[in-house]
Amino acid sequence: MDPNEFKGKRILVTAGTKGAGKAIFERLLKGGASIITTARTQPDGIDQQHFIQADLSKKEGTGKVIEETLKRLGGIDILINNLGGSTAPAGGVMVLSDEDWENALQTNLLAAVRLDRGLLPAMLAQKSGAILHISSIQRKMPLFEATLPYAAAKAALSNYSKGLSKELAPKGIRVNSLAPGFINTDGAKGMINNIASQNNGDKELALKIIMDSLGGIPMGRPAEPEEVAELAAFLVSDRAAYLNGGEFTIDGGSVPVV
C-alpha cells in the first residue's frame, strides 16, 4: 500500500466507526488522506479531529456534517456514502409500517442524496471529485422476511447513483456504487452466535444457514471488511480515473445473475 496515495485528498466516509465503514476509513487514513467519518455516538479510539457526531437519517444531521466537513477540510475531494442498515421487524411485508419504510429510505437513500447535494458545489467549483455509494446485493436479491425496505432503498440508491454519474462526469466528477454481500463484521458474528445458540452452539452450521439464505456463496465464506475497503479505495483513487457509472459487486459470487 502506498502511504501517500491519498495525500492531499479531503475525504468524508459516513458511518465509518465499525464494520466495512471502519475498514474503509482506516484504509484511506493509512493512505495519507485528510479524512472525517461520522456516527450517531462517539466511539472509543478515534481522534476527535476525524469524527463528527450526527444522525444522518435526519436532515439536521446531514446539515451538520456538510457544514463541519467543509469547515474542517476546506473542501471535499472524495465522498463515500457508507451509511446503511435496517431496523424493520421480521414477519414479511404485512408487519411493516409506514415508519419502517420511511426509516429505511431516510437511512439508505435520502441521507446520501442530501450529502451529495450539500457537498457537490465544492466539487463542481474545482471541477473534480469522486463519489462512491455503498449499496448492497440485496438490491438484486431482496430478502422479504425482514429487510425488504432496506433492499428497496438500496435499489433506489443504485439507480440514483447511475443517473447522477451521467450528469456529473462531464463536469469532472466520477460517481460509482459498490454492492457488498455478506461481510464478516462484528454484527455478522453476533448473528452467527445467535443462530448457533439455537443449534447446540454450532457456529459452522450457523454460518451455513446464513450463506444458504443468500442462495450460497461460491467462495465458501463471507468477505472480510478489509477486502471491501480495498475495493472502495481503488474505486475512489486516481487508478480508477476512467471508471464512472458502474456498480461493483463484492459477494464471493452470491448473485446468480449477470
From TrEMBL:
Q: Which InterPro entries match?
A: NAD(P)-bd_dom_sf, Sc_DH/Rdtase_CS, SDR_fam
Q: Which keywords belong to this entry?
A: Oxidoreductase
- Which molecular function terms from Gene Ontology are attached? oxidoreductase activity, acting on the CH-OH group of donors, NAD or NADP as acceptor
Q: Which domain of life is it from?
A: Bacteria
Name of a matching Pfam family = adh_short_C2
Q: Which NCBIfam families match?
A: PRK06523.1 (NF005095)
What family classification does the UniProt entry report for this protein?
Belongs to the short-chain dehydrogenases/reductases (SDR) family.
Q: What is this protein called?
A: SDR family oxidoreductase
Q: What is the lineage of its organism?
A: Bacteria, Pseudomonadati, Bacteroidota, Sphingobacteriia, Sphingobacteriales
